Amino acid sequence: MTKPIINNILRLVFVLFISSLISTCAPETVRRRGFEAKPCLDCHKAKLNELQKKYVHSPMGKRECEACHLRHGKIAVLSLKEREERKFCYICHTQMALNMDKTANVHTALRQGKCVPCHNPHASENKSLLKKTGSEQCFTCHKQATFMRAKRHKPLADGCLICHAPHGSQYKDNLIKEEVELCQSCHSYTADKFRKAHKDYPVQRGKCTGCHTPHSSTNDKLLRESVHAPLNMGQCASCHKPVTDPNPLDVIAPDGKLCYTCHKKEESGFKEAYRHRPLDEGKCQSCHSPHATDYPKITLMSRNELCISCHKKKEGVLKVSSLHAPIKDKGCTACHNPHASQYQFYLKASEKKICFTCHGKTEKELNERYAHVPFSKVECQKCHDSHGSNNPGMMKTALTNLCYTCHKKEEKEFFKTYIHTPVNNRQCASCHKPHASTYKGLLNNSPDQLCVSCHGNMFLELKEENIHKPFKTKECMICHNPHASEHIASTIKPMPELCYDCHKRLETDLQASANKHLPAEEGKCTVCHSPHGTKIRHLLLNRPKELCLSCHERIVTTTVKRGHIEMEKGDCLSCHISHYSESRYLLSAKDPALCVKCHSVDTERLLKVHIKPVAKISHCLSCHEPHVTEKPGLLKKLKHSPFGKGNCKVCHE
Question: How many domains, the chain?
């Protein structure tokens, strides 16, 4: 390759390099023509007001929104660059990140990765971008009442940060120094006033907050709300060795024995069958402070919190939706003796009586005629959780399943075809009382009224009609199973077996009869009858004519001109029997005997039209149609020619 060519190539490479460098340095709006970025505050105009505040976050002041936010988003709504607030803030606040990694006690909000509960990320009227001023910011989480009692610690007036570090510290409760050292920055333990107040005991070796509250109190000298009597009376030597002793803070006797010098009643607990372990081991300070606390009975924690500190398995109880009222109002000691008891689980009364100390009204139900077996034995915990549960009434399981833990037989009813709605919905209490009842089966009401409570309209509709006797007396369970059945309408037996339980003669006669009405033969009683009642006698579903014709519609045609008078009246039962008969067609008598009941044989008209004496005629139906026809005299439509002309003598003498 010649030298000129090489030089030309080098020049070309240099030009391309310079061009790319220039394009890289060009403003984004030039490089991305057609996609020019719009300033964030053009849309987020409300944020412009933030710029007027006294303290503005540096990126906000420079309008560098993208220092924190992504233009197109990564996290929903805020479009922040980092999901966790704390890590996000640490991108700039690196020193804070380093400090917190080495800090033993980190402020709860910060430990949870949250900066925004205290700081406004854009701007604020308060220093450090705090949302509120001084202590007001702290009171958004910390209950103000504990700081507002009558006797207040002087530093409170100067704010919380006099004693506490806002983000965290190496000391308990985020104190800026170790507790005693912090207190001594104001209270010199060598001062005469201090020594006199503490009876010359070297209390600086202990903890000031063991007796005093650091915030506010209703007691003088900022003593905590619940103070041990000897301390309140300044009788330190009642429990501790003399001031002159090399170890004056040591107690004069071991924990339990020391306490029993005053607390004789609690000592008697050793005689009880069931003793709380701390009492049994003589470790009173497992639950109580020897000096003072903010809790009744100088316990170390709130009543429930104290118990759960050992009884971890019960911790979830306090979070249930249906919490036992005594636990909510009075704590565990409402039912349990914290020291000892003659009853298991340290109950204040026997298991059979403890519930009735509050539930006196329920106890009276034991006098009812019928009682649920667990209730009659006062075994409340068979159904209820004594502490609480997530089910109404503190039930051990959902009410829909609870009853079936014992009533296995009834649970199988779910697999039957026809299920009573309350059973299907597992609402046993719709019909039954859980404890006791005046009525058999623990029913909520008398059987006659119980069904009415849901099916009332049915009874109102048939108020003054022809009513089936069991329905009239509201004895529904004569026919129906209250839970479920394999038979339609939840009847206790299939039809006609159910009907035959009462109508026994009908069953016998049907079995003996040669001719049966088809519905009766098939056992379908409700084809004709209502099981409850109707406006028509015999519980018929319709008037006899309409009822019969609903099946036998073929005996009526549109060309009918004449009808049998009984047919016209709709009185089918004048000739037919409804269930069974010895005669064909369910006739109440044989032909011609049936016809002769109405048509007298010696009338002039009959004698005139019948050549043969009527009494000697064997079958009226040989010539006549019994229901309807187009021909006069109810004669059949198709006739022998001589007969049709009235010329009987062609064949007959």
Answer: 1
Please report, to the nearest 10 degrees, the dihedral formed by the alpha carbons of residues 359, 360, 364, 365 taken in order: -10
pLDDT digits (tens, 9 = 90+) for 260-269: 999 988 888 8
Q: State the DSSP code for 292.
A: E
- The amino acid present at 595, given as its one-letter code, is C
Is the bond leading into 592 cis (omega within 30 degrees of zero)?
A: yes
Note the Cα 307 to chain centre separation in Å.
28
The answer, yes or no, to whether residue 17 has pLDDT greater than 90, is: no
Q: Please check whether residue 24 lies inside any domain of the structure.
A: yes
Which strand (E) or helix (H) includes residue 151?
A: strand 151-152
Average pLDDT over residues 519-530: 92
Would 13 be classed as within a structural domain?
yes
Give the domain extent around 20: 1-37
DSSP string covering 416-481:
SSEE-HHHHTT-GGGTB-SSEESSGGGBSS-HHHHHHHHHHHHHHHTTTSEE-HHHHTT-GGGTB-
Tell me: pLDDT of 8 over 70. no
- What integer pLDDT is reported at residue 213 of this predicted model? 96
Q: Using CA atoms, how far apart are residues 426 and 403, in angstroms rounded to an integer?
A: 9
Assigned token pair, 296: 């009744």
pLDDT (tens digit per residue) in 479-494: 999 999 999 999 999 9
